[in-house]
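Worked example 3 (structure in, sequence out).
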């Protein structure tokens, strides 16, 4: 199976890569010590000289408002992917988080020519989840997360699956990147997205060890990443409508569902509303409510209702369409509609 993945070209490239792996045990060791937590990364950029690294500076850097809204997560055994991660940090001013294996990968572990080596065995086992020793971080507040790793036998190292399964990426834009001897990124980005189950994952990219900061800059520019808040966009039968969303747990959960695109088939009911299933239960905090045209509510924990008239019932408020009443009636009262939610 793995043999199929490796083309003759790739094997040659891997041979070169393996030489560098084998030749650089000290590189690996220094990688491990330079493994910076989010806090340490922020301190390093702040503090230019050792004398400036005071405990005051450290506690300053741990303040949430000292964080960037961009994070670079990286796993790297021989420093190639880490050097790409460092360049992305320098371009974007992102925080850095390095994934370290609880049981570090030795040269023998990474011997791709040995079918009994640790890496070969782990990559042959899709359920392998090597443990991470780096301290846990919170992803709250990060709008953009770059996630980097080396390609191992055409795939992401299994420890990357351990990472993505341990975190909730919310609605953040997640961008995979990798380095390799010659193989492309393959399905690794999509496999990570699937295992993560959250986040708005973009197409990833593979880089060689010699990629320049200018090349990375133009790649990052091409991603069309937006600064600031991501917004949940509601469309009624294809027409985007402005919505003022509530700030509550139900809307946050809805945003997570919207991150992978949510389609709700609605039906007219009672001459005053459109109602349709979200597809699963989300948090509800129902209150007796008299609705007005444009109100969007959660009914029974798993149904979305949008009003073009009024009703009194126990609902959880989700938001309000910010359009005049006649426009709302025009959109909702002329037959069943399809509502889509997505994150922009
Ligand atoms: C176990 C193992 C498997 C590898 N498999 C591939 C591969 O399938 N294709 C490829 O081009 N390079 C492969 N490589 C080479 C690495 O992807 C490459 O050297 C990478 O840049 C190393 O990144 P790092 O220094 O951040 O660990 C493999 C390396 C190892 C150790």
């Amino acid at each position: 199976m793995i043999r199929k993945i490796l083309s003759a070209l790739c094997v040659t490239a891997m041979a070169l890569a393996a030489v560098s792996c084998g030749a650089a045990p000290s590189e690996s060791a220094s990688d491990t010590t330079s493994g910076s937590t989010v806090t340490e990364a922020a301190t390093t950029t702040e503090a230019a000289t050792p004398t400036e690294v005071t405990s005051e500076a450290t506690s300053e850097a741990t303040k949430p408002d000292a964080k960037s809204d961009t994070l670079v997560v990286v796993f790297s055994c021989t420093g190639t992917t880490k050097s790409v991660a460092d360049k992305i940090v320098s371009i974007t001013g992102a925080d850095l988080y390095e994934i370290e294996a609880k049981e570090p990968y030795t040269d023998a572990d990474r011997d791709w020519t040995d079918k009994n080596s640790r890496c070969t065995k782990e990559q042959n086992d899709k359920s392998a989840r090597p443990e991470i020793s780096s301290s846990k971080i919170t992803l709250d507040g990060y709008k953009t997360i770059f996630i980097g790793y080396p390609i191992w036998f055409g795939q992401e190292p299994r420890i990357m699956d351990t990472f993505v399964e341990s975190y909730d990426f919310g609605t953040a834009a997640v961008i995979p990147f990798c380095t390799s001897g010659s193989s492309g990124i393959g399905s690794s980005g999509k496999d990570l997205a699937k295992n993560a189950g959250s986040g708005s994952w973009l197409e990833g990219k593979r880089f060689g060890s010699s990629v320049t900061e200018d090349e990375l800059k133009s790649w990052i520019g091409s991603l069309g990443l937006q600064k600031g808040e991501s917004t949940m966009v509601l469309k009624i039968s294809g027409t985007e409508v402005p919505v003022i969303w509530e700030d509550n747990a139900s809307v946050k959960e809805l945003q997570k569902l919207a991150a992978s695109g949510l389609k709700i088939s609605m039906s007219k009911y009672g001459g005053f509303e459109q109602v349709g299933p979200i597809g699963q239960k989300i948090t509800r905090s129902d209150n007796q409510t008299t609705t007005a045209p444009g109100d969007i509510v959660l009914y029974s924990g798993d149904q979305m209702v949008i009003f073009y008239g009024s009703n009194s019932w126990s609902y959880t408020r989700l938001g309000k369409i910010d359009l005049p009443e006649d426009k709302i009636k025009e959109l909702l009262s002329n037959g069943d509609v399809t509502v889509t939610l997505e994150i922009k």
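Notes: Residues 2-50+64-222 form a domain with the Rossmann fold fold (CATH 3.40.50.360). Residues 8-23 form the longest helix (16 residues).
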